[in-house]
């Protein structure tokens, strides 16, 4: 079902949520960096494509929205007395980045960047749903 909704080719390995459940601090830390990266990539798109008025208009409020998510995730860590850990190397993003077509026109590069962001968002959305369904921490489940 998710495949149709989110366009993902493969679902997340079902073992992922079991590991996630036991490592809430790691999940929240990772999540915080995901929100930070979402905000950061909106900012860099705005800077790179400043001349595309519609894009800038659409992305500007998203920066604030993603940063607000970052703030909220940090609050969830604090609430649980969990540390905000260091950023870990993101294998998934590195592999995705390798698939991006290099070169081409500026518009083609924009499309590549947007597609990559859309894939990252789709995967996050799928995983948030898994967390919402499966984690025993009621408050955090609601959060997701
Ligand atoms: Fe977000």
Explain how this protein is built.
Helix 2 (15-22) crosses helix 6 (106-134) and helix 3 packs antiparallel against helix 4 (53-79). The protein has a single domain (14-135), classed as Ferritin, CATH 1.20.1260.10. The protein is globular. By secondary structure, the protein is an all-alpha fold. The chain has helices at 2-6, 15-22, 24-48, 53-79, 91-99, 106-134, 138-143. The protein is built from 7 helices and no strands. The structure holds fe (ii) ion. The site of fe (ii) ion has 4 residues, from helix 3 and helix 4.
- Helical stretch count? 7
Tell me which oligomeric state these chains represent: single chain
The fraction of residues assigned to DSSP E strands is under 5%
Q: Quickly give the structural class.
A: mainly alpha
CATH topology: Ferritin
| Rg, nearest Å | 16 Å
Describe the sheet with the most strands.
Answer: none
Write out key terms for the chains shown.
mainly alpha, binds fe (ii) ion, Ferritin, about 140 residues, about 0% strand, single chain
How would you summarize what this structure contains?
The chain is an all-alpha fold. The protein is 76% helix and 0% strand. Fe (ii) ion binds at residues 35, 38, 66, 69.
Topology:
Layout: H1 2-6, H2 15-22, H3 24-48, H4 53-79, H5 91-99, H6 106-134, H7 138-143
The chain binds fe (ii) ion.
């Amino acid at each position: 079902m998710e495949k149709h909704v989110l366009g993902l080719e493969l679902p997340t390995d079902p073992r992922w949520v079991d590991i996630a459940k036991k490592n809430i601090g790691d999940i929240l830390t990772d999540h915080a960096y995901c929100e930070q990266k979402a905000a950061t990539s909106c900012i860099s798109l705005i800077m790179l494509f400043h001349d595309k008025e519609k894009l800038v208009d659409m992305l500007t409020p998203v920066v604030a929205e993603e940063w607000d998510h970052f703030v909220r995730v940090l609050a969830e860590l604090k609430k649980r007395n969990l540390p905000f850990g260091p950023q870990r190397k993101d294998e998934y993003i590195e592999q995705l980045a390798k698939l991006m077509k290099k070169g081409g026109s500026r518009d083609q590069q924009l499309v590549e960047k947007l597609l990559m962001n859309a894939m990252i968002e789709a995967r996050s959305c799928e995983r948030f749903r898994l967390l919402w369904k499966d984690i025993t921490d009621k408050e955090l489940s609601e959060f997701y």
